[in-house]
User: What shape does this take?
Amino acid sequence: MTTETAHLVPYDEAISRYDPVIGLETHVELGTVTKMFCGCPTTFGLPPNSAVCPVCLGLPGSLPVANRAAIEYTIRIGLALNCTIATWCRFARKNYFYPDMPKNFQISQYDEPLCTNGWMDVSVAGQTIRVGIERVHLEEDTGKSLHIGGVTGRIHGADYSLVDYNRAGIPLVEVVTKPVPGAGALAPVIARAYVTELRDLLRALCVSDVRMEEGSLRCDVNTSLTLRGATEWGTRTETKNVNSLRSVERAVRFEIERQAGVLDAGHKVVLETRHFHEDTGRTTSGRSKEEAQDYRYFPEPDLVPLAPPAAWVEEIRAGLPELPAARRARLQAEWGLPEGDMTSLRNAGALDLVEATVTAGASAPEASKWWLGDLARHANERGSELAELPITPDQVARVSALVRAGTLNDKLARQVLDGVLAGEGDPDAVVAARGLAIVSDDAVLAEAVDAAIAAKPDVAAKIRSGKEAAVGALIGDVMRATKGRADAGRARELILQRLS
Ligand SMILES: [Zn+2]
Assistant: This one.
């Protein structure tokens, strides 16, 4: 229990005396149409146990057949991560008993992974860090247990448990990094940046929908501390199933503070899996970590070895899309936006939207202003993603064009966006229906100008005596009278004409 009661060492202090080493294991559900070894659909959210068959239920006598698309996706991932692709490898049987494993074993890969020894660059705080990739292997997902009753939703204290096997057998790729030493204080940020980059990469490769909240991208974070100057790395812990990018960063940070406390107290860090809790930001002890021998791996006897022909691998390589890092560099050069804006666009998931808005005729600064500003606020308020807002890049580009043409000012443009989001139609329809176009017609403006002058004779007198700066107050009144629609420049000219 010493690990649970140890005090936390403040982060900066922990980093001043210990060097963290991190490593990440990421599970990705592949977006294939069917499961890894049978023809069942992989659709998310189907009624429980409706997408199952004798193979994925592990019934006696059923035989698996490997999914070619899943193998192709895995090779695609391996190539994009600069890995070596095996010319011959085998699946392995990983034995363990778990209720959501209908076969009581999982078909995985052990000492013969499909892809090995690659790397991926991530940029953090202006520097590029190369994260080594140990392996990328292919396996099948397990089912899902649902614990009913009790307060925590965990098995402890539950009245009974239900098992849904729809997920059992969905192809799962595991991407394992090499240990990342020398990260220092940046370790938590590097961990987050790595998962972000990997997510973007997987999305660009079209191999997964990479939704952390639906569990199609799941991350385990290994953390250990070494006393500064020591030659041997400390014992690591593995924090399981960290479900958001922010949690990846928090989990590493917490483990550094906790392990420093354990080590300061003269205790040893226990090799174990831990659970991260979103609400408290803390990790708690899970189970002691199994060793490989506990799984009694052996080559899967029901499947033939996997030997992707070199020509096929080269064909897959030739078909790789532009990868995210290269794309960001190209877009930044084309758009001329500063690094900070690019980072914000990326974090907001707005790169595609801005690109489409620019293609539809807006300038990059205009497009990024609307998507990162008002539209991001709307998305926030609705608790949705930018891409889910009921507005298209074409419509945003049209609003931008109306501002450029002088038909709208920024304030009116915001109301047009509101209207489009409220389902009132295209920007031009909203402008017409709400009467939002700027009024520069003298006949209409004159009335408001005269009223403003009449209402503030003292201000008018100041302007007559040459104090032109006072004109702002009257323009403000004209704007209010026209509900923000007056052409401010023209209103100013009219006021000065009348008071000269
Ligand atoms: Zn099946």
Observations:
- The radius of gyration is 30 Å.
- The longest helix spans residues 245-264.
- The chain has a mean pLDDT of 91.
- The pocket of zinc ion is lined by residues 35, 38, 40, 52-53, 55-56, 169 (CB under 6 Å).
